[in-house]
Amino acid sequence: MKTLKTLTIVAITGLVGLSTVHASQTEGNTMHKGMKHQRGEMKKMFQALNLSSEQKEQMKALRQEMKAQHKERREAMIKGRGKMGSFVSANGFNKQGFIDMATKRSQMMIQRRADMFEKRMNILTPEQR
Fold first, then answer.
1. How far apart are CA 41 and CA 38, in angstroms?
2. Does one domain contain both 44 and 94?
3. How many Å separate Cα 103 from the centre of its chain?
4. Residue 3, domain extent
5. What values do phi and psi take at 12, rounded to 5?
6. Do 39 and 62 belong to one domain?
7. CA nearest to 125, candidates 42, 52, 74, 28
8. How confident is the model over 42-59, as a mean pLDDT?
9. Do 66 and 116 touch, CB atoms closer than 8 A?
10. What is the pLDDT of residue 129?
11. Running DSSP on this structure, what letter comes out for residue 51?
12. Cα dihedral: 64, 66, 68, 70 (round 10)
C-alpha cells in the first residue's frame, strides 16, 4: 500500500513536470513561427512584383546595408544601456526624462523605417508601385 502511494505521487509529479516543460517550449516558438509567416508574406509580395534582375540586386544591396546599420545600432545600444539607469536615483524616478528619451528613440525608429520604405519604393517602377 505504501509503495502504491509512493508510485502514484512520483507519477503525478512527473506528469506535472512534463506538462510544464512542454508548455514553456511551445510559448517560445509561437513568435518565431509568426516571424516566418511574415517573412513568407513579404517574399510572396516581392515575387508578385516581378522584379528585374537589376532591381533584385538593388534590393539585396539595400538589405545588406540595413543589416550592417542594424548591427551598428545594436552595438551602440549595448554600450548605452547605462543611460536607462540615469533616470532612477535615490531621490526617485525622472519620469519626464524617461518619456523624452523613449519618445526620441521611437521617433528615430519611425524615421529609419520610413527612410527604408522610401528607398525600396524608389527601386520600383511606377507600374510596380
1. 5
2. no
3. 19
4. 1-48
5. -65, -45
6. no
7. 52
8. 86
9. yes
10. 77
11. -
12. -150
